[in-house]
Amino acid sequence: MRQFIASQAPDKKGLIKVSGKDYRYLRQVLRLRSGDMLSVRLPDGELQNTTVCEINEESRIITLQICADTNNGSITRGVQAEVIQSEHPGACVEYWLFQYIAKPVKMEQIIRQAVECGVKYIVPVAGEYSQKQNVQAMQSGKKDRIERIIREARQQSGSPVDTMVLNPVRTEEAVELWNKAVLEDSEGKNNSSAVVLWERNENTRSLFECFASEKKRVAVAVGSEGGISPEEIQILMNSGFAPVHFAGNILRCETAAIYGLAAVQCVVNKF
């Protein structure tokens, strides 16, 4: 775990008390001991280094103390969360993923991977080719499970981005959300760019054309198992989404999402 997502801010003494499921995870999975250090992401997004100053086995509470020393005793293996944050090339870019609703297990995988990629907003879209039962499953609410997936993915990846999964919408509502975000930006369309991954190659553009200049807000739309209908593609194109086709094999939706995000980020981060 590269960072621990705290559900509460430290008190005036700089102490954070951890209990419940988080206590069990830190104590039984990570096997925290007094004196160990842990990177903690606070509710306001700030990253702090803490020391385990007390473990109360009876009340099952771990007390973390905000500190400045990061040289010794860290239990995080590999690259530290603060290093990830300082070297995060896309931290200043706000990524949106418009994901047409797929099977629940695939949606969970897509959400997990998008969080690890630093996507800010994930918008489930109920498309023409989305199965009715899959849309109903997404609309029925598994809010707690989705929040847990996001939290675990951020803790493992060290992502500084507070990812949000919005309520499911139709295609028309999805483009309204995007256009509203673009219009609220003082630089408007010059600061934003959107693409839709399409399995066909008619009238498509390359990513280098779509992101020929620096952008601060980027959207990627990805289809469900059946793709995106021609009518929906047209709606997206009319709202400024440029169709992009990757030469090669037709990818599964869960593969297309992570593949597309990675390709877009490689191009966007060249600036």
Question: Could you describe the 3D structure shown?
Answer:
By secondary structure, the chain is an alpha/beta fold. Helices cover 35% and strands 21% of the residues. It contains nine helices and eleven strands. The strands form two sheets. It has a six-stranded parallel β-sheet with strand order 8-7-6-10-9-11, with helices on both faces. Strands 1-3-4-5-2 form a five-stranded mixed β-sheet. It is elongated. The two termini are 30 Å apart. The model has no long low-confidence stretch (mean pLDDT 90).
Helix content: 25-40%
Instruction: Report the count of strand segments.
Output: 11
Q: Uncertain regions: pLDDT < 50 for 5+ in a row? A: none
Please state how the strands of the largest beta sheet are arranged side by side.
8-7-6-10-9-11
| Cα end-to-end separation | 30 Å
> For the residues shown, what is the average pLDDT?
90
Strand share of the residues?
15-25%
The number of helices is 9
Rough outline: elongated
Q: Radius of gyration, rounded?
A: 21 Å
Q: Structural class per helix/strand content?
A: alpha/beta
